[in-house]
Amino acid sequence: MPQTSYRRHTESPQKPTKSRHLRSGTVLFMAILMIAVVAWLLLAKKKAHSPSTPTNQSTNQQPTSNTNESSSQEKTLPNIQSTIDEFIKNNPGTYAIKITDINGRSLAEVNGDQQFFTASIYKLFVAYVGYQKIDDGTYDLNEPYITGYTRGECLDAMIRASYSPCAEKMWAELGKESITEQMKSYGLINTSLTGLYTSANDSAIMLQKIAKGEGLSVNSKKSYLDSMKSQDSKFRIGLPAGFTKSIVYNKVGWNEDKEWHDTAIIELPNGQKIVVAILTTGVGYKTIAQLGAKIEQALLK
Fold first, then answer.
1. What percent of the chain has a predicted confidence (pLDDT) above 90?
2. How far apart are CA 137 and CA 243, in angstroms?
3. What pLDDT shows up at residue 14?
4. 300 CB-near residues (< 8 Å, 6+ apart)
5. Domains in the chain: how many in total?
6. Which of 15, 82, 197, 279 could serve as a FRET partner for 115 with CA atoms 20 to 30 Å apart?
7. What domain range includes position 111?
8. Single pTM value for the model
9. CATH number at residue 213
10. Per residue in 232-257, pLDDT tens?
11. Is residue 247 part of a domain?
12. Does 7 have pLDDT greater than 60?
């Protein structure tokens, strides 16, 4: 009996339990330690990167068209007033000319505020407001508009082909007075969509807005410029014929042999853009093409 009792006591039934507790405690301690280390590393990493977070967020944002256009104008374009004056001196007629860089800095001006009958240049303003009405949801590009044309096709045709039935309907629909007032809010003080007159300065402002996409969605800007770039060949015999090394987006207007106007956004070979608005009486497209060649030559010296 005493021997049995001894064995019962020497078996120490509590010893294995204590060992298990020690192992469990060690594992728990190591787990807590690992969690603490990981948390410390994450906190340190976050602090190390936090100063650059605003920069990263900024670079991920979509740049506006204005930012892109401004960055392409790094080289200051020269003033070419003397080139224009000399050309006009040797080529008779009545001229109103405004040439600016994409941000509105004047490179040359002659009779900038003189009012001329718009001829088809009025379509430049109608299409601009027409695209805005698409962008704000007032109208739909795909809705039928006139026979054989959707509204979107009409916006294209009035610029690409100077198609008057489309332009005249939209001109009346948008409101001649309303468009005129909107143009005035942009600083176009010598333009009327009721009286159908405009100036070289006003036309240049409109071209700047189209070129930079001001007031237009990305898609509308793209569509507008595509129409101007791909006009029918009979509308490309003025400025586009003169700027042989550049890309020309233009809209012309003429009244038989009396007026010939050419308004254009021009991308030079180095990527810089200018706007050229030329309104004339008694000049003609051949002379405007020659003037375009002189302007390109002067800017690329």
1. 73
2. 37
3. 40
4. 245, 268, 269
5. 1
6. 82
7. 75-119+177-299
8. 0.77
9. 3.40.710.10
10. 999 999 999 999 999 999 999 998 77
11. yes
12. no
